[in-house]
Amino acid sequence: MSFNGFSHSVMGASHVAKGIVCQDSSAHKVTDRYAIAVVADGHGSKKHFRSNIGSQCAVEATIETIDRFYENPEEFEENLPKNHKMIIRNIERQIIAAWNTKVLKHLEENPVTAVEKKPFTAEEFENINPEQYYGTTLIAAVAGKGFTFGVQIGDGSLVAIFEDGEAIMPMEYEEANPANITSSMCNANAASMFESFYIDDKRLIALFSSTDGLYTSFGSEYDFRDYHVILASQVNSPVLEASVVKNITKRSHFGTEDDISLSCVFDPEFAQEKEELLKEMIERNKKLAAERRAKLHTANF
């Protein structure tokens, strides 16, 4: 089994209009034993004024943590299936620890400027914990030999496509927590806010992580999942990455006009083997979408 992948972040129309930097970050890493697809979405509110750096630190912390767990790959591949809950919790804790180290190092090397403090009163600024300057979400997907797992904190989506060609979301899309508080890497109890999943009885075709700007650019979860089946059918196309960038750039002007990040890892040989199945799934999804539209149309009359 060998993996391949891609990752891209584009700026949302609302950020372009306001002159705000892209607060998303994305990355992927492919080795002969495992592949990682990771995205992070820095928070837009005032106190998270370094969230673009926070999201970059989150992506780096995740890849470094997974690499560390794979330092002895045979041992990790043997232990994970037996103790996946405990090991994944440990991975989550270490990602948070690595992220905290990175952002506090950045702060030490780059003290808060007068310009950054300007929007706050002295009292307001005093009440912000330094980690909050860098607040961000995180969605990470890992494909290994014989297993797939993922971790998530905050909103965003993870989509997996296994041997049956169905696009599944093994972790629920979290639009917002009660009182509109999004789980964040910067929360004091961040390590306990993760969601995760682990699957070891299905062979993987493709695995996608995306920030919430992608999900909100679709009319429904059905359309969102169908989009990933189309992408999975095209992973071996030499023009896929260019068309993905073009598409997510276009989508960043829909919905919330938010930044969009999409990261993907896939098994190119298995995707080739399952090409006909994926085409059949696309046709089936088109029919189901037409039926849903017809039902909706009838219900409106």
Provide tags for this entry.
10 helices, five-stranded antiparallel β-sheet, 44% helix, alpha+beta, 301 residues, Phosphatase 2c, domain 1
Compact description:
The chain is an alpha+beta fold.
Structure commentary:
The protein has 301 residues and is an alpha+beta fold. The chain has one domain (4-299): Phosphatase 2c, domain 1. It is 44% helix and 20% strand. It has helices at residues 13-18, 51-69, 73-109, 114-117, 122-126, 212-215, 221-233, 240-251, 268-273, 275-299; strands spanning 4-10, 24-30, 35-41, 138-143, 148-153, 157-162, 167-168, 195-199, 204-210, 260-266. It has a five-stranded antiparallel sheet. It has a five-stranded antiparallel sheet with strand order 2-3-4-5-8, covered by helices on one side. β2 and β3 (35-41) form a beta hairpin. The longest helix has 37 residues, at 73-109.
Number of helices: 10
Helix/strand order: EHEEHHHHEEEEEEHHHEHH
- Structural domain count: 1
CATH level 1 class label: Alpha Beta
Q: What does the main sheet amount to?
A: 5 strands, antiparallel
CATH superfamily caption = PPM-type phosphatase domain
CATH topology term = Phosphatase 2c, domain 1
| Parts with pLDDT < 50 across at least 5 consecutive residues | 173-179
User: Order of strands side by side in the largest beta sheet?
Assistant: 1-10-9-6-7
Topology at a glance:
Elements (H helix, E strand, L loop, with lengths): L3 E7 L2 H6 L5 E7 L4 E7 L9 H19 L3 H37 L4 H4 L4 H5 L11 E6 L4 E6 L3 E6 L4 E2 L26 E5 L4 E7 L1 H4 L5 H13 L6 H12 L8 E7 L1 H6 L1 H25 L2
Antiparallel strand pairs: 1-10, 2-3, 3-4, 4-5, 5-8, 6-7, 6-9, 9-10
